Amino acid sequence: MDGEKGGEGGLMMENLKIAIVGAGETSLLAAATFGTVYPVIVFDPDRSKRARFDEKGIAFTDQASELADAGILLITGSKRPVYTLDGLSELCRIVGSHMKKGSVLIFEAPVYPGTTEETCIPLLEQHSGLAAGKEFFVGFVPARWQGGEAQGKVAKMRKVIAGQSGPVTDYLADLFAPVHDGGIYKAKSIRVAEAAQLLEIAQKEVNIALMNEVALTLNQQGIDTHDVLETANTRRGFIKLEPDLLGDHAVPWHGMDQFWCKGEQKGRQVAQRVIKKLIQNEVIIHEARITVLGVTREDGTSEAPEAGVIELVSELQEYGMDVQVADARLEMWQAECAGGVLLTKQEELLPAVSVILAVPHEAYRKAGWKLYERLLDGKSGYVFDVKSILERNEKPEKVTLWRM
Fold first, then answer.
1. How do strand 72-75 and strand 354-357 relate by DSSP bridges?
2. Residue 385 burial (10 A CB sphere; 0-12, 13-18, 19+)
3. Domains defined for the chain, CATH in brackets
4. What are the angstrom distances between the C-alpha of 26 and each of 40, 261, 307, 322, 380?
5. How many CB atoms lie within 10 A of CB 315?
6. Where does residue 368 fall: left (phi above 0), alpha (psi -120 to 50 degrees), or beta otherwise?
7. Cβ pair 22, 82 in contact under 8 A
8. What pTM was computed for the model?
9. Does the N-terminal or the C-terminal CB of the chain have fewer CB atoms within 10 Å?
10. With DSSP H G I counted as helix, E B as strand and the rest as coil, what are the percentages for the chain, rounded to 5?
């Protein structure tokens, strides 16, 4: 983009150092992706979050004063389940106090339509003393960062961008084009982009809620959900969705509580199913040892624990079971706890009466049935496969397999 754009100060492709504000769910992937083209630094006042970025060679700071060195500030916000308007407002106050004239601010955390322009911009103007649209510029970009195998698929999607004016939108399009090869879609306005992101999330949440109910109903009838999905998928145009009983809760965004079908107690439902199955097989529950594999997201977007897994563990413990938890990804950082749950290294897990494969990380997929035999007491017991990824025809004779 050449020349002056958008009023006093102008928009120029000059200082392209990007500061990602908030070490949240998608910050690591955003930093890694932008870092292939632009200089990047991640800011978060919580210094304890530095390790995961140091591991990837990504610059991290907990000093807000360093935001002044960046011409572009991408505000990602916190991890979705604890995302609040107060948290976003605090980030706006911090950024506004340290950004410089000519800065470009990009919001991507999901918010109620109008939040960026009615809440964020006034806060930025108040704390910076600068005028939006003339001395600094604002846009909104729905987050679509993904990890693992999903990253390539998402990169082929069109990137939605929106600015407070046409020149700002054009600037953002030029900024994102080198790191997003799926093409750029320019939304009509920031409000449209905000609403579109909420609709995307709502559609996903509603569909998952539907499949969760289907899975529970089918299970009551002794029908394997995965078999039903494979059969129904033979119809042209069928949308193959899967249950996600251990996914994150729906998000109570500001003004949006009534918008969602809330996914409460999904982990507890899984735990209660496991308890019921064990009792039906005459297992004495009190103080029986059970192993839960997988705590963090399968796609690698966060080291934070899945809310559903925490619920699962808590419910099992309330029934008096001795629960040991491991996570293939967290072991790389030798983490000792996540979400208040004590973690055990895989090699230190004691034999258990049952193993729950809660989050099927790649290591658990590749290990095959030998891993589960080793984790069971006497190579026999019960394996609960939440995502139905283990091969049934390779199951050892002494192992009982339960699936969604």
1. unpaired
2. buried
3. 18-191 (3.40.50.720), 198-261 (no CATH), 266-403 (3.40.50.720)
4. 14, 24, 17, 34, 40
5. 20
6. left
7. no
8. 0.72
9. N
10. 40, 15, 40
Give the 3-state secondary structure of residue 208: helix
Q: How many CB atoms lie within 10 A of CB 294?
A: 26
Q: What is the pLDDT of residues 197-220, one digit of tens each?
A: 989 888 887 888 888 888 878 878
Cβ(123)–Cβ(96) under 8 Å? Answer: yes
Write the pLDDT tens digit of every residue in 277-308.
999 999 999 989 999 999 887 766 566 677 78
- Please give the structure tokens belonging to residue 313: 């563990």
Instruction: Output the CA–CA distances (angstroms, integers) from residue 135 to 72, 172, 219, 336, in the order listed.
Output: 13, 16, 59, 46
Who has greater pLDDT, 216 or 152?
216
**Whole-angstrom distance, CA of residue 140 vs CA of residue 163:** 6
108: Cβ–Cβ under 8 A, 6 or more apart, which residues? Answer: 26, 74, 75, 76, 77, 140, 141, 142, 143
pLDDT tier, 9 (very low <50, low <70, confident <90, very high otherwise): very low
Query: pLDDT at residue 231 above 70?
Result: yes
Section 107-129 average pLDDT:
94
CB-based burial label for 6 (10 Å; 0-12, 13-18, 19+): buried
Integer-rounded Cα Rg, in Å, for the chain is 23
CA distances from 55 to 22, 41, 83, 163, 333 (A): 17, 14, 25, 34, 9
User: Phi first, then psi: what are they for 254, rounded to 5°?
Assistant: -55, 120
The answer to whether the CB of 295 falls within 8 A of the CB of 330 is: yes
pLDDT at 395 over 70: yes
